[in-house]
Amino acid sequence: MAALIGRRLFCTKICQKNHEQHRLQWSVKQVTKSNFSDSLLEFKSHLSSSDFVAVSLQNTGSFSAAWHRVSFFDTPETAYLKVRLAAERFQLLQFAVCPFIISGSRVTAHPYNFHLFPRDELNIGMPSYSFLCQSSYLTAMARQGFDFNACIYDGISYLSRAQESVAKVRMGNPVAINHDMEPSSSPPTVADTVFVERVKSRVKHWKKACTDSSSRKTDEALVKSLRKLVLGGEQYGSRPCMTIDVCSERQVQLVSEMLVDFSDDLVALKIPTKGGGTQAVRVVLTSSKEDKSLFERELQKVEEEQNKKIRGFREVIDLISASQKPVVSHNTLNDFPVIHSKFIAPLPLSVDEFLHSLRSVFPHIFDVNHLMKEIGPLENVTSIPAAVSYLKNRFFAPIDMEISHGASQDDGKIHGQNVLRICYFFAKLCSVLKIVPGAIQSSDENVTSLLDKYTNVFKSCCRSSQESVDGAIRIWTKNPRNVSCEDLVFLWGFRDGLSAGMLKSLLQGSHDLFSDEFDVRLVDKSCAIVVFHQTNASQALLDVMSSEGITGSLREFVSEGLRAAGYETYKRACSLGLWETDLACALDKASATPDCFSQSGSEAKSSEISWCNDLMINMDDL
User: Fold this and answer.
1) ω into residue 118 within 30 of 0, thus cis?
2) Which of 70, 89, 535, 591 is the most exposed place for a label (fewest CB within 10 A)?
3) What pTM was estimated for this model as a whole?
């Protein structure tokens, strides 16, 4: 009954028949390697007619330790370093995609759930040799009936754009030379002239021997063999060809320019080396202009088939990127570093480089969490059903969901249904915020500025209170404010078993610095964060704890092992990749490392954090 009520939150249609029909209404098409080709054609058709594309990812995990998760005290730089770590360590097993159309109060959705697995189908060591798994994530997937055997044996493999370039080089397949390349600007040397004349002579004699029908009829087998040996004649399929060895890309260009004289019936192909250069140019002789066009089409078809085999699921990502359709997600901070890492290229070192690269692929990204913040605080909204209920109680914005016929014929597996929840919730938010889908293609400056307000937002997401180490401390929820990173101090080395409230009580009577208002919260079991409301108090505490004149009970705490560090030490731990299980161990190592990051320009961009517990919508709470 509870599951039925939960589903009704997403549909204004009343279920008049039975539960089976209601279940099928939310069916998502499951796509594996066996039906990928047919599903890709359907997806391409649905994408071309859609307004938006919703995405939802299922990974094998998100963080290896409590403090590795993006938290309320993270700046965009440290938040990016954390999600970068998770994207590189954990594996993507399901990628749900849903092109959808919003027409008034009606949403027409076409959901697909692609099952993925990083299988090395080309025997080149890519896309992945190993990855980490988080037991809670695998347990949740198993409870939903996820078939891990089918994922491993029938999951769709893929290569990123960067890996594709490497793979093509390693495979060594011939590549057609474009004769439209710009001529060399440097004047030819004596060596260039000798090389070109020698190659030109070889090509002329080889072409003449291939096209001289009288000699081909009368020559004996021995003569033909000698001619083939001397002139380098070979066969490329059914067409004659010859191979020209080259030592540099300069010689490749010289051969290409020289072959322009024979371009009516010759096609040049580069033979790459495994190191990335070119070892030879293969010249194929065609019988006519029609045969040349036919051969070029054959080469193009072979290349397209090879690209599909190499790219795998990345064909879906490339289609979404080429369509320029706005992408809707429920957590861009976690989802898009994974997408970039698995399908585009290795993640850049800085958040600014990442954003620049991401916008070149997906120019418009909507995050439903950010849109929800435009309406009200998220402190009491921890899931999409709760968010929908919140909107229903305050706004009249009815939405009808219509799932495509092709998806409803599936066997009704529940995998990938989060993407439909995102579609419905986004349509609800668009109705409340007066976002008109057709306005996205508008060139009006007012419309563009309005869309910029909602799209491409990449900020630190705050952790939920249910996952906090000490849920009793709620003061930053009731009094949200911006806090300078200079007012934060990390404390570790205190006694085990202390709560944030107990630690705050001990600190209040330990020194005069704690006589004014301050906040305490545990980051993990080994470390706490202290926020001073008085300027310069944090630096004063660090000076006192490092001095020999420390007095009072604070001296006893220090003698028992209490240590402190500023926010720069925390940033240094993240930048150096000191991802220990306990934050205390990471801060110990960072404190012993010379500070070579403090002068970095990128680190000085953001010195404030939002000191609050403004919750993001957690899909794991569904």
Assistant:
1) no
2) 535
3) 0.78
